[in-house]
Every structure is written in structure tokens, then in C-alpha cells.
Amino acid sequence: MSYVKVKQLTKRFGSNTVFENIAFTIEKGEFVTLLGPSGCGKSTLLRSLAGLNQVDAGQIKVNDKNITNEPPQNRGIGMVFQSYALFPNMTVEGNIAFGLKMQNVSKENIRQKVANIIELVELKGKEHQYPHHLSGGQCQRVALARALVVKPQILLLDEPLSALDARIRKHLRQQIRDIQKELNLTTIFVTHDQEEAMIMSDRIFLMNQGEIVQQGSPETIYTKPINEFAASFMGQYNLVSAKKAKDLFGIHVDSKVAIRPESIYVREPGRVYGSHVSAPTLVTVKSHQLLGSVIRYQVTTQGCELTVDLLNRSSERLLEPGSELELMFNLNELQPVSAA
Hints:
By secondary structure, this protein is an alpha+beta fold. It is built from 9 helices and 18 strands. The chain has 2 domains: about 230 residues, Rossmann fold (3-Layer(aba) Sandwich), CATH 3.40.50.300; about 70 residues, CATH 2.40.50.140. The strands form 4 sheets. Strands 6-7-8-3-9-10 form a 6-stranded mixed β-sheet, with helices on both faces. Strand 4 and strand 5 form a beta hairpin. Helix 2 runs parallel beside helix 4. The longest helix is centred in the middle third of the chain and has 18 residues.
């Protein structure tokens, strides 16, 4: 039996419908990410699950209990915000203990629980410091500890890493995932960052304009986009019309096809390619970007512009604008996509 069940959930602000008839299930201990562009409804959906926004229709069940009309404090849900939302006049210890005090937990139990959670989030030695003495990453760990210490049924994370620099983000997202696995905590995470979603999730719910347009494992969402939006949002997919697909790949299709930049190869003289690889196509380099271990080329051929990612083996591999090379396409990686 699914741990979280959402049925026909609808939320409106006046005449604006944010989402309508949203439905999904989540298993216990699963890490699910709501991924999508700004304004797609993902944060409003998260806040509706938390009870911070009242829904206009539908039902939310957790562990077979209907919590649709329960106040936030009775839902057994912990939430971490992008803005930390810490009490500036309380120490790290005081911030973390706040929820336990509201539950009338004994002082001795509070002391023990807070000490345990401080160790879990690696804040030992910071117990008596105030938020203004902490870094952004440390403040976010305090917010995480405060949500975890009350042992919520579900943990909701609303873009908690977006205000942090890249190095701290990478460390903290791994720490969150490790803690989530250790506690077997059902978690719903909101982000607009595709890489973050791919790394952290068991499943991704890809949202656009108030709808979940596709859901599945990170691998499925990335390698098998269901439509043009999914293909364009999940990376640098090349979208090729049916007519161009016939010219470039020698195939007959009724819709556009998507191909990933890393599924396009430079022809190597003397190498024998299998039947899953297309015949060579001559292209002209338009520009290039050095992305560390990858060189990203924009190339043109037959009136079509493509993005090609090649492994950066040495600086000698950099091809200047105007250079010509022969490309081959992995036909097994072609993915037909619908317009909507």
C-alpha cells in the first residue's frame, strides 16, 4: 500500500488555477523530487501538502489517514525552506529544540534528542552559536535538524539549497540524501535544478504549467523524455523535425525526434561501426564551450543546428569555428517526442 496518496488535488488563487486534478502516490522511504521551471506550481503543491495552503478540491492521505483538512501542526510533516526561517534570537540548540518544546517533551528527552540530531547533521561545537554567526550551509543544516528532530512522517524540502554556493550545495545535497536513507524518511524535494534532481531522487515528477507531465526514475526521465518540454528541460537535447530526421538519420518518423549531445560521435578513420550508428554527416563548427571534462560544440549541417558533447581529452581537440568534421549518430538513442 502506498504511503502517500494524492487524489485530484486542485489549488486556485482567485481566478488563477495553479494546478488541477493532480494525482500521485509515494512509497514509504522514497525520495521524490518535484522538478520544473519557476511558476509551474511545484512549491504551491508542496505547501499544500504541508497544510500551509488550503486546497480547493481533492484529497491527501498519509499512511492511510486523510490529512486534507488537518492544520499543519497535526500532519506529522517537517518542512525546510530556502530562507532557513530560523529564530535569530535563539541559539542553534534553541532553534532545534523549539518543536519538541511545543510538543511538551521533557527537558531531559529534549537534551538527548537535540544532541543526537546535532551530531547527525555535523554541527557539534555550534550548539550555543546564533544564526548570524553561522554560514549559509550551517544555517540550512540547523533548519534540517529542526525538521528532523520531531521525527516527521514526511520531510518536505522547498529549494533548500538554491541560495548556497556550488561547493556547499554539492556537500549538503549528499548529506541530506545520506540522512534520508539512514532514517528511511519519506521525502519530497522541490528544485528547478535538473542535476540536483538526477543525483538525489528515487523518482522525479517533472512539472510544467500545473501538471505532472512525466514521472519516473532519473534515468527514465533523462533518456526517454515523453515530449518536447521534457526533452528541452532535462538537458541539451537536440530536437529534429521528421523531415530533417530523414535527411540526417535515414529514418522515417511521424514526429520530432530527440537525441542527446553525448549520443553523437565524431567519425574515427579506420574504426568499424555497428548498424546502430548512422552514416557520416559533414558538419561545420559554429562555436564551442569548454565545460571542464566536456567540450560542447554548436554545429550546423543541412540547415540544422545541433549541440554535440565530446569528452575533453586535451586542448588539441578544440575545434575552432569554421572547422569541418564528420559526425555519426547512435540510432538506438533517438527518442520520438510529441509536441505537448
